[in-house]
Structure formats: structure tokens, C-alpha cells
Design goal:
Pfam families: HTH_3, MBF1. By secondary structure, the protein is an all-alpha fold. The chain contains six helices and no strands. α4 (about 65-70) crosses α5 (about 75-85).
Length: about 120
């Protein structure tokens, strides 16, 4: 019927089903490379090296190894190693635990200063 209508010169509207008759779930379009070039590079912020050095110095001043500090704050030793080397994505819970364990601030503008022990708000 479609071919007959086309032969007569009539306007025929057809729509193809997406990936019909093919075993393709994930087709790559021609625009993928163009899209890759256009989109900006997205990556997570990492802990600064300054914070890593403060953690290392605070830990060593207390005579703790990376493993000791990790055990003290209930984290894996690899977490401490990542924070000290600047590879870790900052997590405020972990940073808070490390701050309390070594007694030095790691967040805010006064990084490396001792934590003031004030009355806790309830």
C-alpha cells in the first residue's frame, strides 16, 4: 500500500522504529565525539596538599602511625594515606574525626591552628 501510494506520487509519512530489527541496545551516534569535545571536564575537588601536610605533621607530633590514626577514628589506613597525599575527596565527617584526633583544624581559613576546646552547644 505504501509503495503504491509512492508510485502515484502521493505524500507518504513513515516513521522507523528505533533500532528495529537490530540487536542494538546502545547505539553510538555520530555526534558523540563532538559532544565529548564540547562538554567541560567534570571532576571532584580533592583535599589540598596543605591539609595533607597538616594531617601528617599533627599525626607525627602525637607519635601516631597512619594505621594508629585510622584505628583511632574508625577508618581504614588507606583513607589516611589518601588524605595525606591529597588524593581523597573531602568528606566533612572524616575531616572532623581527624581534626579531633590530632587536635588541629583542617577546614576553614585557619588550617593548622589548634582547636579551641570550648563548651559544646546542646
Amino acid at each position: 500500500a505504501i509503495l503504491a501510494a509512492q508510485r502515484r506520487g502521493e505524500d507518504v509519512e513513515t516513521s522507523k522504529k528505533w533500532a528495529a530489527g537490530q540487536n542494538k541496545q546502545h547505539s553510538i551516534t555520530k555526534n558523540t565525539a563532538k559532544l565529548d569535545r564540547e562538554t567541560e571536564e567534570l571532576h571532584h575537588d580533592r583535599v589540598t596538599l596543605e591539609v595533607g601536610k597538616v594531617i601528617q605533621q599533627g599525626r607525627q607530633s602525637k607519635g601516631l602511625t597512619q594505621k594508629d590514626l585510622a584505628t583511632k577514628i574508625n577508618e581504614k589506613p588507606q583513607v589516611i594515606a589518601d588524605y595525606e597525599s591529597g588524593r581523597a575527596i573531602p568528606n566533612n565527617q572524616v575531616l572532623g574525626k581527624i581534626e579531633r584526633a590530632i587536635g588541629l583544624k583542617l577546614r576553614g581559613k585557619d588550617i593548622g591552628k589548634p582547636i579551641e576546646k570550648g563548651p559544646r552547644a546542646k
